[in-house]
Amino acid sequence: MNFASAVKAINKLLRTIRPHSFCSSWIRQHAPHVYRFIQKNVRAEIGGIDWDRITRALDRKLQRRWQTSRRGRRPKCFRDKSAVEIILKKYHDKLYTFLAPADANDKQVRDIISIALVRIAQQGNLAAKQEIIKLVRFTIDEWIEQHPKISCWAGLDDMVQMSVEGCIRRYRYSGSFIGYLFKTLEYAGRGLRPIVAFSLDDHFCSGEKRRGDRIGLNPETAEIMIYG
Length: 228
Hints:
Layout: H1 3-17, H2 24-30, H3 32-41, H4 51-57, H5 60-63, H6 81-90, H7 104-122, H8 126-146, H9 157-170, H10 177-188, E1 215-217, E2 224-226
Antiparallel strand pairs: 1-2
C-alpha cells in the first residue's frame, strides 16, 4: 500500500457507507489496514499522524465530513519555539508564499505551512500562534490592497488580529486555512466602514476654509476642539 492507494480506499469507503461525518477512529474501525499504514507512514513534523495531509487529498465533497477528535477544555498556554522552528526550517525557502505566491503550487505550500502552525497553536503554543499571525498579516495586507471586499479592513490592525486569532481557535475543517481566513474577513467586513484618510490642508465642503481651520486648542483645558 502507498499514500495514493490509502486515499483511494478511504474515498471508496466514504462513498459506500456514506457517513454523516468521520474521524480517525472511524477509519481505524472500517479500514484497520489503511489506518496502520497511515499511522506508520503519514507523520506530522512534530509527531503524530498528519491527518490534514490525508483529508486534503480526499475528494473535495468528502473533505467536509471530517471531524477532529479534540474535545474538552481549552489547552493551557505555553511557549515552545522548537516546534515552530521545525516547521520554519523545513519550509524556510517557501515563506515568501505568504507575501507573493507565484502559482497554485505556492498557494498549496502556503496552506501546508499555515495549517501546520495553526495545529500547533491550537495545542496552546503561543510561539506558533505568534508566528502564524505574523505570516498571514503579509497575506492580509496584500488582500487589503488587491481585493475590494477586504479593503475595508485597512487601518483596523487590532480588529484584524482578533479575527485571525478567532480563525486559529475555530479552524477544524482540513481545507485551506488561508481560504477560511479570507472568507471570514470578507463576511465580517460587510458591516465595516472603511477608514478614509484626509489631510488637514484639504478644503472643507468645497469652500475656502480648510479642515485644519476647524481645529483648535482650548486654552483652559488643553483639549482639542472642533469648531463649526
